[in-house]
Design brief:
The protein is mostly helical. It folds into 2 domains: 93 residues, Winged helix-like DNA-binding domain superfamily/Winged helix DNA-binding domain (Arc Repressor Mutant, subunit A, Orthogonal Bundle), CATH 1.10.10; 40 residues, no CATH class. It is built from 8 helices and 3 strands, in the order αααβααββααα. The protein has a 3-stranded antiparallel sheet. A hairpin with a 2-residue loop joins strand 2 and strand 3. Helix 4 packs across helix 5.
Length: 166
């Protein structure tokens, strides 16, 4: 862990990836231990379907901030497992809508109490001090900055400016 502390922001991506991988591994262990056949990457789709009931693939992609192709790949996987269904509506036959099947609804009912416990546990792990609670806020700010000015543009501009100054 010492290298992560000494390199600071240089290893931010590596650290976040490492934390994400460890976090998702723990989530998978929870589901497996409970005998629930649910995979952590499905969470955002199930969460949004719980909120909307039915949602278009394009809106799903927009909410998740990923490509329609990426969403479609997951949709195909979930459809093969019989957890979701894809349909078109008469009002616009071009748009495909996703909704949970009865099996998907049963699975959702199984994972809802797990989600509640995960949320409470993570909040508890963050502690009561303000710095820990600010983690999510800091991530939101950083994501916003990355959207406004991609890091590659900012670094290349700084490099260009520093070369011109020499």
């Amino acid at each position: 862990m010492a290298i992560y502390k000494t390199t600071g922001a240089l290893m931010l991506g590596t650290r976040l990836r490492r934390l994400s991988d460890a976090f998702l591994l723990e989530i998978s262990r929870i589901y497996r231990s409970l005998g629930i056949e649910f995979e952590a990457p499905w969470f955002p789709v199930f969460y949004l379907l719980r909120q909307h009931g039915s949602i278009s693939i394009s809106l799903l992609a927009g909410e998740l901030e990923v490509s329609q192709s990426a969403v479609s790949q997951m949709i195909v996987q979930l459809e093969k497992r019989g957890l979701i269904q894809v349909a078109r509506r008469d009002c616009d036959r071009r748009v495909r809508y996703v909704s949970l099947t009865d099996s998907g609804k049963e699975l959702l009912a199984q994972v809802l109490p797990v989600w509640k416990e995960i949320q409470q546990t993570v909040e508890g792990m963050m502690g009561d001090d303000n710095a820990s609670r600010m983690l999510l806020h800091a991530l939101e700010q950083f994501e916003g900055e990355m959207e406004r000015t991609p890091m590659s543009e900012a670094v290349l501009a700084r490099l260009s400016n520093s070369r011109e100054a020499l």
